[in-house]
Amino acid sequence: MPTFDKADTDFLISIAREAGAAILEIYESNFTVQTKSDSSPLTTADSQSHKIIVTQLLKRYPKIPIISEESSDISTYEERRAWKMFWLVDPLDGTKEFIKKNGQFTVNIALILNSRPHIGIVYAPALGLLYWGQTGQGAFKKEVNGQVTKLAASKPKPNDKLVITGSLSHPTPAMETFLDEQRAQHKQVRFVAMGSSLKFCMVADGSADIYPRFGPTMEWDTAAAHAIVNASGHKVVRYGSSEELRYNKKDLRNSWFLVY
Length: 260
Fold this sequence. Notes:
This protein is an alpha+beta fold. Helix content is 32%, strand content 28%. The chain is built from seven helices and 14 strands. The strands form four sheets. The chain has a seven-stranded mixed β-sheet with strand order 3-4-5-6-7-8-9, with helices on both faces. A hairpin with a 3-residue loop joins β7 (129-134) and β8 (138-142). α1 (6-27) packs antiparallel against α2 (44-60) and α6 runs parallel beside α7. The radius of gyration is 18 Å and the shape is globular.
């Protein structure tokens, strides 16, 4: 089984940046929107990013299989159940944010090792934000001005203050209930709506305390940012449980979860 070092991480970051540049070119044009079979939106940016990432990964790592949200033929569980290592990619996470032109969309590239996220790259091209992390190597954030920060779980904040982040485009009654419960326990609760996997990154970099998800997500939506959260010392668990989210399940849909 191959090992992955800084050269590999740098390569993955370069792919994410290349895909991000292609996305921005379309973002700044008059793009068209199609509808996929599950009623979710699809743009040429999704397709272009997918092509760049998959082509580059296969060129450098021809023996490592890939699951991408935009793959036309995702392997069956019978084929992939024996996979110990694979790439899990969302070429454009937050297509609705891309369409709204609010900048809150990302390129997500993850390496899954034994059903757990091992490496994660999350790049928000419109915001100039880059996050990356690897098991045992730490998590990092690079801002638009080039400043790099190592991310680490901070000491607990005063119990009377709590920052919660949640979906910008997918509000749910369960989230409202959760917020009401937290407001009853804390003097000050601030909710920050955010798109894409940037919600995970807000917990990783300390700008949010909790991200609860009470709605549908797929494994490619969460894997890259999950790796970053883990590498920063935070956790991603099934909601109401201490069990960590796992990958390469028979059903690629995630359960509700909590990031903290």
